[in-house]
Structures are given as structure tokens and as C-alpha cells.
Amino acid sequence: MRTLLVLCLCLYVAWAQDNLEYDDYDMDTVTSSGSKTNETVDARGHRPNTGNRDRYNAPRNNPPPVSGSSRYRGRPTTTSVERSVVQEKKEQPEAGGCTHPSEELGVLCPNGCELKTMLLKQEKNVKTSINELKPQVDDLSQSSNNVFNYVNSISNTLRERQIVINDNNRVVSQYTDSVEEQHVYIKETVDTVFPSNIRVLQGVLDKIRLKIQKLEKAIQAQREECKEPCKTTCPIPVVSGKECEDVFRRGGRDSQMYLIQPDAFYPAYKVFCDQTTQNGGWLLIQNRLDGSVEFGRRWDEYRRGFGNIALDSGKGHCETPGEYWLGNDRISQVTKMGPTEVLIEMQDWTGAKVHAQYQQFTVQSETSNYILAVDGYTGNAGNCFLEGSVELFGENRTMTIHNGMMFSTYDRDNDNWNPGNPSKQCSKEDGGGWWYNRCHSANPNGRYYMGGSYTAQMAKHGTDDGVVWMNWKGSWYSLKAISMKIRPFFVPQ
Ligand SMILES: *[C@@H]1O[C@H](CO)[C@@H](O)[C@H](O)[C@H]1NC(C)=O
Ligand SMILES: *[C@@H]1O[C@H](CO)[C@@H](O)[C@H](O)[C@H]1NC(C)=O
């Protein structure tokens, strides 16, 4: 089950990498650049000149933001022992002999005459018996000789074998010695090296086990959450309008998802309206807040828009904005309707917040690659769009100004860094689609880094590809949250 899980994770990682198309072109050319210098504090953003042919062309004359009078007027202001049996032996008289003098006991010895005849008779018998026995004795002697010889030969054989045995013992002992040596070595190894290695591996295993348990818990939690199909049903509020200011004026005073239709010739679409900040009326066109949506995307995706407009956190309506990019066509269309202001709000990982606001913000149509035009800065984040990075000087700073830039994505290079040279593209190095110059002082669509500070070694290409706003936190701090909201500009009453 666990191995299966790990396998799944590996497959997922491989799959996820396959998907990051914009990164897979030259992963090895990049890693060296970061280690040599104290880059964590250096300002990056720009790409300095490297030779004669590498010249920076200052921005052209671009159309200014739409200005002039608004169609709106100001409004009021929300884990036996075995027993041995000893048998007594009875003394018995010996059978047939003069064993006892007492008459009572009845056994009498024979007289002398009888004894002689008996003996003569017996002698004859004995002689014959002896004669009969002689050959047998000879036989026996003969056979005992044989036995002797046999025993002798066996002894010889035994001696010879003894010799062989001794030889064998020598061999065996040598062998035993070497076996003992090896045993000692192996024992040492097993007693010292192995245990420590095993301890280390055990530690590693324990950590992995812990991580797997955490992952299993997380997966379990996700499974629970996903038992029911995700509800993306956001009830659409009754109130709608041309954009969020219009919605506000028609009574849509809660910050949530609304349906808007800026132009009667195109279908209506969903957006998140912030109806509280600075008296509301703000249409959210860009939002980063948790890294849940990938922003390294193609031209077409930036044109149409991507991400999650809004979520329902249990209140019955979609009052929480997701991470998204509204889409260049829509942004362009809305900003061209009339004078539009943009509010860029950002937050670091300690919760501190700052903002930058431009009273005039216009994005031209696709035919002109969505050229950006802003004016009228106010706020405390720093004026990246118009002034570039204040850490840089001269031409280096000019290279980081965004105003007047065309939009670039990793598959469409419109930046000011050696145009036409595919190895010098800001969007490929800096992570997102944006109005890159050469390259940026602000990178709101960059890679999302948890915790804020990151280094050139952590970045895919050694560049400051985080969610950066140089004039507030520098090149090597990726913001926790940033959003861009637009509203028709009007003079408050
Ligand atoms: C980088 O340089 C700054 C001063 O310029 C210094 O304070 C900092 O300790 C240096 N960091 C490293 C990692 O060398
Ligand atoms: C521009 O940047 C390069 C390298 O970062 C530096 O060598 C050069 O002096 C800078 N130019 C100015 C005008 O600061």
C-alpha cells in the first residue's frame, strides 16, 4: 500500500514536471549562475548589457492611457528419579560336590575303590576326547593365526589411515584458522559498522514513515473532502452590470462573485467584485494568495484568462476570491471603455500590507500585444510601473520600467531583451506572463514561493522569478499575496 503510494507520488511528480512546458527547454544551463556571488541581496530584475551588439533600446512612444472625462460621476460612500530395586542374592550349595560335612544336608562323597574304577573309565573317555580335541585345537591355533594376521593388517591400515587423518587435520585446522579470521572480521563489521549504518537507515526510515503518515492523513482528508463532487455552484447574484462599479451602483454592495457584461456584443462572464476597499466598485483582474494556480502559461491562456474566480467558504455564496487572471482580452476591453484606475494591493509573510495605485490604466488590444499604459501613481509600495527599480541606476533602471511594454509569455516574446533571440526571453526566465521590459521591477505573475525569501539557487533559472515588487521587498522576496483591481476612474464628489 505504501510502496504503491510512493510510486503514485513519483508518477505524479514526473507528470507534473511534464506539464511545465515552459521550463523544460534548458534546465542545465541555469544552475551555475547563482553560487558565486552574494546575490541574495543584489538587485536583479534587469539584464545588463554584455557587449557591443547587445544594446538596449529605450521604449518607443506608446499610446498614453485612456484619460479624460468619466462616464461616472462621484458617488456617496462600506513470553523421577528411577528407584533401583536391589535384589538380595541367596547363597546356594554347589551342585554334585563335597561341599558340606553335615549329614543333615544329605550329600555323601563316593569311596576310594569306586573312585579308581571311575577314574579309569573316565581316563579312556578322556583320552578319546583328547584325541578328538587335538585336531580341533590345531584348527583353533590355525585360525587364531589367521585372526592375528588379520588384526595385524587392520592395524597397519589403521596406521595408514591415522596418517591420512593427521594430514586432514592439518588442512582442516588451516581452514579453520582462516574461517576464524573471517569470522572475526565479519563479527567486527556486524558489531560496529552495521549497527551504526542500520541506526542511520532506521532514522531515515522513521522520518520517511512519518512523512508517509502525514501524506496518508492529508490524502485521507482530501478523500473525505472529495466524497461529494466539488460544488462550484456559485449562486449568481441578481444584481449584475457592465462592471463592478456599475454593480455597486445597482445595489450589489457585498464583495463576491458577480456576472458582468461590459459590452452587449459579447457574452457576460463571472468576475469577483471587491465592494468594500476604498468604497468598492473594484473588478479583480489578477489575484495571488496561496500558490494554488500555476501562472507559467501560454499566450492563449493569458488572452482568455485562467484560474478560479471565487469560492464558497460555507456561506452559501462565493464571497472568497480565488487565484486567477481575468484574461487580456477582457482587461483590454474594460480598460478601453473609459478612464480606468488600478489598485495593486500586496502583503508580505508577516502580514504587512502596502499598495500602489495608478489613476490611469489602459491595456491595448491583442493586435498591439496588449501594450500597457499607466499614469498617476499614488501609494506606499513604490512606483515600479513608471520608475522601474530604485535599486538600479541609469539604463539598468530604465530596463525595469513596465509602462509602455507589450505583454510577453514563454511562447510569445515581445520584451525588450534582444528581441528575436529565443535564449533571451524574460518570460521564460521569470516565470509568468507580463509586460516585461528587460526584464522587470514588478513580477506579480511570477512563481509562488512559500515563506517569502528565496535565492537564485532555488530559482529555476537563477533569476528573480518570484512574486516580486522590487521597490518594496527587493528581488529575492516573493510576496504572500498580491492582487490587481480596476475601476472606472471618476472624481469623488
Ligand atoms: C551579502 O552582503 C551583505 C552586505 O552587502 C552582507 O550583510 C551579507 O551578510 C552577505 N551575505 C552573504 C551570504 O554573503
Ligand atoms: C548596470 O548593471 C551592471 C551589472 O549589474 C553594472 O556592471 C553596471 O555598472 C550598471 N550600470 C549602472 C549605470 O549602474
Summarize the structure.
The chain is α+β, with helices and mostly antiparallel strands.
Topology:
Layout: H1 2-19, H2 112-225, H3 244-249, E1 256-260, E2 269-274, E3 282-288, H4 299-304, E4 306-307, E5 310-311, E6 320-321, E7 324-325, H5 328-336, E8 340-347, E9 353-363, E10 372-379, H6 384-387, H7 394-398, H8 426-430, E11 442-443, E12 468-469, H9 470-473, E13 481-488
Antiparallel strand pairs: 1-2, 2-3, 3-7, 3-13, 4-7, 5-6, 8-9, 8-13, 9-10, 11-12
The chain binds 2-acetamido-2-deoxy-beta-D-glucopyranose (NAG) (2 copies).
Tell me about this structure.
- There is one protein chain.
- With 493 residues, this protein is of the alpha+beta class.
- It has a domain at 240-488: Alpha-Beta Complex (Gamma Fibrinogen, Chain A, domain 1).
- Helices cover 35% and strands 13% of the residues.
- It has nine helices and 13 strands.
- It has helices spanning 2-19, 112-225, 244-249, 299-304, 328-336, 384-387, 394-398, 426-430, 470-473, and strands at residues 256-260, 269-274, 282-288, 306-307, 310-311, 320-321, 324-325, 340-347, 353-363, 372-379, 442-443, 468-469, 481-488.
- Strands 1, 2, 3, 4, 7, 8, 9, 10 and 13 form a nine-stranded antiparallel sheet that branches. Strands 5-6 form a two-stranded antiparallel sheet. A two-stranded antiparallel sheet has the order 11-12.
- The model is unreliable at 5-14, 16-40, 78-90 and 92-100 (pLDDT under 50).
- The site of one 2-acetamido-2-deoxy-beta-D-glucopyranose has 3 residues, from loops.
- Residues 32-99 are annotated as: Disordered.
- Residues 198-225 form a coiled coil.
- InterPro entries: FIB_ANG-like, Fibrinogen-like_C, Fibrinogen_a/b/g_C_1, Fibrinogen_a/b/g_C_dom, Fibrinogen_a/b/g_coil_dom, Fibrinogen_CS.
- Pfam families: Fib_alpha, Fibrinogen_C.
- It is found in: Secreted.
